[in-house]
Structure prediction request, 118 residues.
Amino acid sequence: MYLNPQAMLKIAVQAAEDKKAEDITVLDIREVSIIADYFVICSGRSRTHAQAIAENIQERMEEAGRFVLRREGFREGSWVLLDYGDVIVHVFQDAERQFYKLERLWGDARVIETPVNI
Prediction:
């Protein structure tokens, strides 16, 4: 089943919210990169919390018929990356998020304020 990028984005954000992810930010990177359409960036309070967020996103996407193309960092749980092609999800612990500052690195990207209402 095909899911457009906006549908995948809604699923990922809702799944992160359901697990109480903190500081969810969505970047529309279509105008600044060809690697994906959207980045979802969020934080977990601990390794276990970050893993739970990532697992929930992965489960919800699978229920919708989309399977992760690449998953990195799950075991460590400090920065989990879930690559769905058009949508890339980054689940950080706070220290790593502050260190890598993806929002600043991708500062030319448009921030989507209400991704669930796309």
